Amino acid sequence: MDYAVVDPEGLEPEDDRPCDCRQLSEPAGLEQLAVNFFRAEPGEQIPLAYHYHEIQEEAFVVQSGVLHVETPEGEFTVPAGATFAAQPGAPHRAYNPDDAETAVEVIALGAPAVDGDAVQYDPTEDGR
User: Fold this and answer.
1) Which of 4, 76, 113, 126 supports an S-S bond with 69, CB 3.0-4.6 Å?
2) How far is Cα 28 from Cα 68, in angstroms, rounded to an integer?
3) Which residues fall within 8 angstroms of residue 28, CB to CB, at 6 or more apart?
4) How many helices (H) and strands (E) does the chain have?
5) Phi-psi region of 74 (alpha: psi -120 to 50; beta: other; left: phi over 0)
6) Which helix (H) or strand (E) holds 119?
7) Which class for 34: exposed (0-12), middle (13-18), buried (19 or more C-beta within 10 A)?
8) Can you give the pTM of this predicted structure?
9) Alpha carbon separation from 97 to 19, 29, 105, 107 (Å, rounded)
10) DSSP letter string over 41-80?
11) Which candidate, 54, 56, 62, 47, places its Cα nearest to that of 102?
């Protein structure tokens, strides 16, 4: 049996993200599940773009603060302790609004763990 304890604070943040992102999957030895820790200050978004996944299910578990998620169906407000989930094909953009009082910390889970599955979504062009 294999086990791992991974502290996000001990990992280097990703350079190409609009907020603090620490990838936990590889240090934990996970191959089928993508796990990331995000800390978004007021005005920062979590994903690289408004997007959807072709086959991956995605969930954001809010650890602290309040996460806002834009979707074609409206905006969701996700408080600490709650989870926002998006099925494959469901466009979303998670962010911390400019007027937020604190940072938001989120654990993001995606399965299956696949590269190149995210598709950029433009609500003005895609008409969903």
Assistant:
1) 76
2) 28
3) 4, 6, 35
4) 2, 10
5) left
6) strand 118-120
7) buried
8) 0.92
9) 13, 33, 13, 18
10) -TT-BSSSSSEEESS-EEEEEEEESEEEEEETTEEEEEET
11) 62
Non-local CB neighbours of 7 within 8 Å, separated by 6+ positions = none
- For 124, residues 6+ apart whose C-beta sits below 8 A from its C-beta are none
Distance, CA of 92 to chain centre = 10
Give the position of tokens 């937020």.
100
Tokens 């796990």: give the residue: 35
Q: What is the pLDDT of residues 12-39, one digit of tens each?
A: 999 989 999 999 999 999 999 999 999 9
DSSP-derived pairing of the beta strands 74-79 and 104-111: unpaired
Give Cβ neighbours of residue 62 (< 8 Å, ≥ 6 apart): 78, 79, 80, 81, 82, 83, 84, 104, 105, 106
